[in-house]
Sequence to fold (100 residues):
Amino acid sequence: PYSAAYPPTPTVEIYGAMLNASPLRYVDHVVCPVLLLIGAKDMRVPPSQGIRYYQYLKSRGVEVEMKLYPEECHPLSGVECAADCLLHMYNLFISSQTAS
Fold:
């Protein structure tokens, strides 16, 4: 059984499942504009993963924007942050509609 104190040792099968679930596995298939909203204090998903994904997309010529919020965690729930996120989502939506 799983215990937070003693998590199971990853097996080949677990690593395989993790690879299949990773966005990096499918990075070559991304063709639409991407907006990454990252909380620098996120303890659920390490910010370095989002930053690396941004770098992979950018290196492949995908239109990508990344916003890093220094005081936010995973939910990005601060009032100013939420407003900023909505503004960036709106701008991405509008720009992708006018580009079509």
